[in-house]
Amino acid sequence: MNETLTQQGGSKILSTVPPENAFYFCTAEGVYTKISANSLQDFAEKLEGIDESSILFHYPRGDFQAWIRDTLKDIELANKLCFIQTGISGQILRNQLLERVKTRIKELKQKFPSTICNPEGLCLT
Fold first, then answer.
1. Distance CA 52, CA 94 (A)
2. Contact present, 64 and 40 (Cβ < 8 Å)
3. Which DSSP category does 114 fall into?
4. Residues 14, 51, 33, CA angle at the centre, nearest 5°?
5. How far, rounded to the nearest angstrom, does the alpha carbon of residue 94 sit from its chain's CA centroid?
6. Which residue, among 37, 88, 95, has the nearest Cα to 63 in the 3D structure?
7. How far apart are CA 27 and CA 101, in angstroms?
């Protein structure tokens, strides 16, 4: 799928979501780490330090991909995350996830520079 990202679409991806739509990291079903992410930038920051067991719990279930696709509305990034090999160590998985997420953030910030976006990442249309 090769969609042209609109300024409004880029704004949604970079924006902060309310607490009820944040990503809540767990290490097992019902075992919450008390760590959540409320934006793509925040997700990248939390991903850097979260326990590997949380990454190994969420990734195979498609939780990261679903949150990015359904909440942040970034289908392109969600699809890219799906192509990371399974059965790799937590640290390698973390690195590959971070590489893709940080590349996407950089790409979006270049398309929608901070001069037209507020500090929360919401870009003017």
1. 8
2. no
3. G
4. 75
5. 12
6. 37
7. 21
Instruction: Give 12-53 as a DSSP string.
Output: HHHSPPPGGGSEEEEEETTEEEEEEESSHHHHHHHHHHS-HH
The 3-state DSSP class for residue 123 equals: strand
For the chain, the structural domain boundaries read: 7-116
pTM for this entry: 0.83
At 37-79, the pLDDT tens digits run: 999 999 999 999 999 999 999 999 999 999 999 999 999 999 9
> What residue has token string 């990248």?
44
At residue 54, what is the residue type?
Answer: S
Q: Which two tokens stand for residue 108?
A: 């979006």
CB neighbour list of residue 4: distance below 8 Å, 6 or more residues apart: none
